[in-house]
Amino acid sequence: MNRLCFRGRPIASIEALASTLHVSPRYLWWVIERTDRLYRPMKPIIKPDGSVRQTYNPAAPLKDVQRRINRNIFSRVEFPIYLQGGIRDRKTPRHCVANAQLHTNAAIVINEDIAGFFPSISRQQVQDVWQHFFRFPLAIAETLTALTTYNGALPQGAPTSSYLANLVLWRQEPELVTNLAARGIRYSRYVDDITLSSKRFLNNHLKADAVRQVRRLCNGNGFRMKGRKERIETSGKPMRVNNLQINHGVTLPKKERARIRAAVRVCEVYPAESRDSSEYQKLLNSTLGRVSRLRQLHPKEGADLMRRLTIMRGASRSK
Fold this sequence. Notes:
- This protein is α+β, with helices and mostly antiparallel strands.
- The chain is built from 13 helices and 13 strands.
- The chain has helices spanning 14-21, 25-33, 60-72, 96-101, 117-120, 123-133, 138-148, 161-167, 173-182, 204-220, 254-269, 278-297, 299-317, and strands at 5-6, 39-41, 45-46, 52-53, 56-58, 77-78, 108-115, 185-190, 193-198, 224-225, 231-234, 240-241, 244-245.
- The strands form five sheets. Strands 7, 8, 9, 10 and 11 form a five-stranded antiparallel sheet that branches.
């Protein structure tokens, strides 16, 4: 399943676009004319490496149109299995566990990370996707570009952005995947995280050439790789993809499992008189999410921790 194509109908006019999105042309024009005013910057996120991630929350009218674009246009794109993040696919779910599963039982894993991926995707690149991948007329491509970009770039946090991020390398990425596969190297991309793996050990020449091809693809499209984030791991030691261990199936690293158990214990010993506070509720909800992820990969351990948390949540609600 490495085919990347659009199986929808051509859209040749604003009226046809409005019909495709199930809105009136008047409503669509209203949103188009106000697009730049409908983005709200969220609080910047400081990542572990010190870099800053700026996300945006589109206001309701724009978010509504973007979600309609997802349902009525992006849903008709056939995404290859090597594209794993930010794609709604009921038949073949795309999430971090599924991405890690593609590389289980490998002899070697190489992880690369694109720096500042979303803000590096320009308005011109987004228009290229709409005009040449989808083959929409220029006027429609420009309209869709206006609806899906902000300040000349792809805004992280908008409903349409993850789909466009997956499509931005549409010209060269399929050929790269084919070339690597011919050498026994599997490729996947989880939005801005690229993973290569092989069932057999690769000599230094093959490793260097595979990395060079990936970097040529990214650099040629205006993206910069995080050199300090490159990670090469072999089966003699723990191998990770998306912070999941993949040596023998997909598991959470032992240290992360220990941290989750510790978080559950913090919830349990939290002072009873403070359990109706917003701080405790935030801690409890965060821990529930982490335990849910653990249960997906370690059912028995996760079920026990979830039972303990459920008791805490019940006690909190009964107060």
